[in-house]
Write a structure and sequence with these properties.
Low-confidence stretches: none
Mean pLDDT: 91
Strand content: 15-25%
Largest sheet: 6 strands, mixed
Order of helices and strands: HEEEEHEE
Distance between the termini: 15 Å
Number of strands: 6
Structural class: alpha+beta
Number of helices: 2
Amino acid sequence: MPADSIDAPKVQQGMRDAWNESQSSDAANRHEEGGCIVRESDGTFAVERRPRGEGASIRPSPRDSFRRYNGKEVIGEFRTHPNPPVDESGQSWAQGGQEGDWGGIAAENYPGDSYIISRDHVWCVGPDG
């Protein structure tokens, strides 16, 4: 994937919107958000959002037989991990993902990088997980 996809304004805004909608500061309502990083018909990069996740999980976006989502070429994905490193109950949460996240990304066989967004970092996950 071209190195500038993460630098594309639409991708950055889509990631910021997903983070804000994750409600990371609301212990009762925080949840994962995410989407696909797609290539638009003009060659620019943007995001297509997924349906809201439930708590600490989100389902991958279903792609058609051409591996497209909403008719657009999928380059990678992103998701939020809105839980703090240690939550209000004392439970620890992986900020940059864990085997299920990385393996799931690798299984999707994206041509480019994917991202996990936590409170303090944006983690880059290569196509191989």
